[in-house]
Amino acid sequence: MTARLxxxxxLALAAASCGGDGVIVDxxxxxxxxxxxxxxxxxxxxxxxxxxxxxxxAPSPQQGMELSPGHTYPLTVGVDSTEVPAFKRIAPGNAAxxxxxxxxxxxxxxxxxxxxxxxxxxxxxxxxxxxxxxxxAMDN
Length: 140
Prior knowledge:
Elements: H1 3-16, E1 23-24, E2 32-33, H2 38-50, H3 72-76, H4 99-105, H5 123-134
Antiparallel strand pairs: 1-2
């Protein structure tokens, strides 16, 4: 087999292994769901459900944590929580100890209200935030 043919076959196999819907098909086991991107989370959760007046939007975001587009990443990832400084707002790779995830999930280790106050974040959305953080909380 020539090197060119081997490369074409490798590309074809790689393309065939991706379902195109956020699921990577692995012939050796169950499907692995890709972590969502910050862009997707921003559009579906942070902007419409968190970056609201008197919540986490300018001019006076609660606890200084603005979750508006362009502000979410620099004001959360690797930044100490102002409410409980022992935790990072987002600790990349560690959702369980990320204050933002803890607030969404209602973690009993923090003495504060679960967010958002109206409870309008679904379990699937909370899982998506967890998956993004656990995957490294990358800024895309």
